[in-house]
UniProtKB/TrEMBL annotation:
Belongs to the bacterial solute-binding protein 3 family. InterPro entries: Iontro_rcpt_C, SBP_3_CS, Solute-binding_3/MltF_N, TAT_signal. It holds the Pfam family SBP_bac_3. This is ABC transporter substrate-binding protein. It comes from Tropicimonas omnivorans. Residues 1-26 form the signal peptide. The keyword Signal applies. It is found in: Cell envelope. Residues 28-250 form the Solute-binding protein family 3/N-terminal domain.
Length: 268
């Protein structure tokens, strides 16, 4: 074989390898997730991700012909990872807000959320008015944190503490450093039902109408396909099955979980 032929063959193999590598990476949906947010997403004993939204994103990827690669990130880092394109999608019971839509994109929503107020037994909190003069806490950059901060004067709470993790939030609640933990009600109820946090309970539910969805980078070329897969899952019963698997009851017939919707352009 001449030098020229060896050069051509080597170049051809290199280009083939590059093309194969590019195809492999294109078939991987890179997902960012907060790893301690059960039952939405969490790591099991084997270090693998499980949860309602994990099942959703895995099913979406399968319908798109992709595989998922889920990376655990700090909650605040999820937004940076999506905005910079380090990940293709983010799952973490994320609420669609007008502010987030300025720098991010979202699929259609699939869950209507509510806030829960976790307290120690005997805290004397059963209404929003009871939060006046109390020490409160929630997760940094979360919807519950924004909700509380917007209503600081209205509620009149004594202080607010911001946490990087649900575990630290609930540890301080149990120790008495804060008197109430405000977070997604599903996550709080799940945490308290595990039996390793005696003396804690959800004392108050606050309906907010916030809508949970998958966050993606603005201009993502995967957004339409992901949204179409979600619509198919709502129509063919897959979403209802996943909802019942993780929450123990069937979703309401007219709920966001089973109603196909377009890609949102506003939080309404």
């Amino acid at each position: 074989m001449t030098i020229t032929r060896r050069f051509i063959l080597g170049a051809t193999l290199a280009l083939t390898g590059a093309a194969t590598s590019g195809a492999a990476s294109a078939d991987t949906l890179r997902v960012g997730s907060y790893p301690a947010n059960p039952p939405w997403e969490f790591k099991n004993e084997a270090g693998e991700f499980e949860g309602f939204e994990v099942d959703i994103i895995n099913e979406i990827a399968a319908r798109m012909g992709d595989e998922t690669e889920i990376t655990g990130l700090d909650f605040r880092a999820l937004f940076v990872a999506s905005a910079s394109g380090r990940v293709d999608a983010v799952i973490s019971s994320l609420t669609i807000t007008e502010e987030r839509l300025e720098s991010q994109a979202f699929t259609q929503p699939y869950f209507s959320g509510a806030l829960g107020v976790g307290t120690r037994d005997g805290a004397g909190i059963s209404t929003i008015e009871d939060l006046a003069g109390k020490r409160l806490g929630s997760i940094a950059t979360s919807f519950p944190e924004a909700w509380l901060q917007e209503r600081e004067d209205e509620i009149g709470y004594a202080s607010y503490s911001s946490y990087d993790s649900t575990a630290n939030l609930l540890t301080d609640l149990r120790s008495g450093r804060i008197e109430a933990a405000v977070n997604d009600i599903v996550g709080l109820r799940y945490a308290f039902a595990q039996g390793n946090m005696p003396g804690l309970d959800v004392a108050l539910e606050i309906p907010t109408g916030d809508k949970f969805a998958i966050m993606m980078p603005q201009g993502s070329d995967k957004l339409e396909a992901a949204n179409e897969a979600l619509s198919e899952m709502k129509t063919d019963g897959t979403m209802a099955e996943l909802y019942e698997k993780w929450f123990g009851v069937a979703p309401a017939e007219d709920s966001l979980t089973v109603t196909p919707l377009p890609i949102p352009t506003s939080a309404d």
